[in-house]
Amino acid sequence: MLFRDRRLAVWVSPLVTLLLTLIILGADVGDMASRLRGSLFDSFMRLSPRLYEDTAVKGHPVRVLDVDPAAAGQFGAWPWPHAALAGVVDSLKRHGASVVVLVGRVDRPDPLSPRNLLAMVPPGPNYDPARQALSQLPSPDTALVTALSGVKSVTGLALGGSVTPVKVKAEIGWAGGRSAVLSLKDQLGAEGSLPEIETASAGLGGLKLIADPDGQVRRMPLVFRANGKAVPSLEAEVLRLIEDKPQLMLKADDGDSGLFGGAPGVMALETAGATLPTAADGSIWLRYSGANAARMLSASALLADRLPPDAVKDAIVYIGDPTETVTTPGGPRKVAEVHAEALENLLLGTVSRRPAAAAQGELAVLLLLGLGLIFVIGRLGVTAGAGVLVVLTAATGYGAYRIYASEHVLFDALGMNLALWLVWISAAAARGFEMWRTKRALKRAFTDVLPKRVINIIARQPEPMKMEGETRTVTYLSCGVRGFSELASSFRGDPAAFTKLIQRVLDPLMAQALEHEGAIAKLTPDGFAAFWNAPLDDPEHAVHACEAAMGMMEAIAQTNEIIIHERRIDGVALDPVEIGVGISSGPAIAGGFDVHGRKVYSVNGDCAVMASRIQALSSSYGPAVIVSEETRKLAERGFAFLEVDYIALEYQEDPVKLYAMLGNPVMRASPKFRALATFHDHIFQSLRDQQWHKARELIAQCRKLSGASQKLYDLHLSRIAYFKEHPPGPDWDGAFRQILQ
């Protein structure tokens, strides 16, 4: 069959696309899933940002040392001399700070320390006084060590680089599977500060911020893996110190092999106050509140003792390079501020959470929704699929946002929805390609047979075109050139001109049939046949056929005018070309078949035979368009029909009435037509009653009316003469049979 497998691509193409998107998102090919997820979560954060809240409500305000212009003018650009740092730490201790965090390393002695200056003094006894004076000066490195020793302090470990031994202050305890350490962010080693600085510090924490593939810092690892050893982050060490614990406890899981099982790795960081959920790699999703003046601590005010009382009491103060920044969803931020926001998230419990099985769950939902979408597209079409997809996109997107806004739980609806749209696009493309192929095949097979509208409809939905055959009620039209043989004989010396003439006559006539939703059934030597209500339903098939016939009358009149004018210019006389049209409605078998590889669609039935016979008889009646009684019943409201005959065809038992179509409803309503129709009713009643004399008188009167066909009346007068000599008998049904002999 022509369209048997045409819908296969509408199923296969989106299924393949769905499978590919599942693989791409599941394996995060090209970091695509990570990038999409990050952009969606950024949007959620902008729509529902974390409002700044001072962590003083949790007992420990979080502050960031602000190197303001006054302090920078006093101590210069960062990094500051160790003596200045020691002064800052001492001032924080005096004001009651709980923990001081150095966001960086102190990995070399102060350039201005006496030890470094002594190395710069030239040798010789002349410089002994200078060397003695320098050796008696206090060391800024020692001052910084002393300051850090006097307060709970955390200094940083630079992770990565070369493989080095790793030193940490915190003991890492594991509740659950110890193999989860393998899921932590892996680093080669950890490089710290000067040995005396590390000794003075109460905690050592990893400094590294892990950016997503797009360069944005959205997550903060709480624990790393360096050279096979678990290393806490700065924030994890701060939490340990404010709880005065020697150990950090990590809750872990070896994972579950099930579809929705948690990924192996870290599950949470347990503190005395709460259990802080983490991702499998030990990281947390940050909720930024943005820069806030309340978080900043003026360095100049601190060193000048101009701070309000209790300004930093029990505070956790981050000290870092003010010029070191990273990219966040909200724009560039100082590294120290990012660490401070991470600690605020932990203390306030505002960390965003992403369940361990979220990725697997999203893929499962994508699979189910994708299969459902493909089913809808396959059954209801691409447009219905688009409507369903719009609803799904809105529902999943809004649902994911509401879950984030209310519960701070992260689900990725963007990747899933983009995948679903790709599935829809692939189905639409496959559907469009199949429509193009179908339309091309239809045009090749039926371009001169079916109207363009019908071809387009069948291309979109070919099921209505049942090529295997069906019974339908159709209206069949047969059109032919009257006096075709005589016309052909007159062109015997110029066959090319005759062929051109017939082409010019038939083209506009067939165009009228196609224009009025008809299908061309066949071409004959003197004309063509057309039909309506197949292959597509046409409730007004009889009306459309009659409209086409009226259009043909106008078309042949215009064609005659042009042709006669052209022939007159050439000095050749030509009578107007006349056509006859027969129309009949009734049941027929409609279907298609192959003829040497070409598809042919046609209808066959009594109505087709009758239309051809009526067309052949039309020249005997005068009017060009003659219709059967069934056609008149179906189209009577739109046209003026006049009874012209009651005949019996040899292949039918019951006689049929024939009607001439004389015009539109305006003519039917005119007094002249009503008078003519009344006379015809009386004429045919007189004939059926075998009242020959009365019928002659009525015909004589009718000849005088406007619109009367003299040829028709001549026909009936000849029949009256025949029946007077050969009476039909008392059982006569009124039908004329001898006309066909």
TrEMBL record:
Residues 475-615 form the Guanylate cyclase domain. The chain crosses the membrane at residues 357-377, 384-404, 410-430. Its EC number is 4.6.1.1. It comes from the Bacteria. One of its GO terms (biological process) is intracellular signal transduction. One of its GO terms (molecular function) is adenylate cyclase activity. InterPro entries: A/G_cyclase (IPR001054), Adenylyl/Guanylyl_Cyclase_3/4 (IPR050697), CHASE2 (IPR007890), Nucleotide_cyclase (IPR029787). The keyword Lyase applies. PROSITE patterns: GUANYLATE_CYCLASE_2. This is Adenylate cyclase. PANTHER family: ADENYLATE CYCLASE, TERMINAL-DIFFERENTIATION SPECIFIC, ADENYLATE CYCLASE, TERMINAL-DIFFERENTIATION SPECIFIC-RELATED.
